[in-house]
Specification:
The protein is an alpha+beta fold. It has one domain: Hotdog Thioesterase (Thiol Ester Dehydrase, Chain A), CATH 3.10.129.10. The protein has 4 helices and 5 strands, in the order H-E-H-H-E-E-E-E-H. The protein has a 5-stranded antiparallel beta sheet with strand order 1-3-4-5-2.
Length: 153
């Protein structure tokens, strides 16, 4: 990770909220949300909003990594979702690095629609060795397979 370069990262861009990113549509697909999804407000789900913010931050970090050796993973999210954002809204997304550590970077992010600030907060990312992360995931996948085999027998 190139610390000096990442510390200078700043972005400002727009994002049009697609209809498929509403809380209503998301909760329809979740086992615990099906029963009440249709009663929800048709606005962007907080989870999708955070994912959009994270994806932009990660994209900005990519150019400062050794792509073969390092990978970015989220490690901390603290965002306040202040207002609803309807599908079709144009959201302005701003962010910049506010902190840097040995293997991490913290961004301040803010999203606004045409009327108000809708979200703001901090998102921290860790830069980890790709091989180590792949080994950890593989171990978990093997444990799941063993559990499924045991349950089937």
């Amino acid at each position: 990770m190139k610390h000096c370069e990442i510390s200078q990262v700043f972005f400002s861009e727009t994002y049009v909220v697609p209809a498929e990113q509403t809380a209503r549509r998301l909760f329809r697909r979740l086992p615990h949300g099906k029963d009440y999804a249709d009663r929800m407000i048709d606005a962007m789900a907080t989870g999708y909003l955070v994912a959009v913010l994270e994806s932009i931050c990660v994209r900005e970090m990519q150019m400062y990594l050794d792509q073969d050796e390092e990978v970015v993973v989220g490690s901390f999210v603290q965002c306040q979702h202040h207002a609803a954002i309807p599908p079709g809204a144009i959201m302005k997304v701003d962010g910049w690095v506010i902190g840097i550590g040995d293997h991490e970077a913290t961004f301040w992010v803010q999203a606004s629609d045409e009327h108000e600030v809708v979200c703001e907060g901090k998102i921290r990312f860790a830069v980890v060795q790709r091989a180590q992360m792949e080994i950890k995931i593989q171990r978990k996948c093997e444990a799941i397979e063993r559990r499924e085999l045991f349950a089937a027998s």
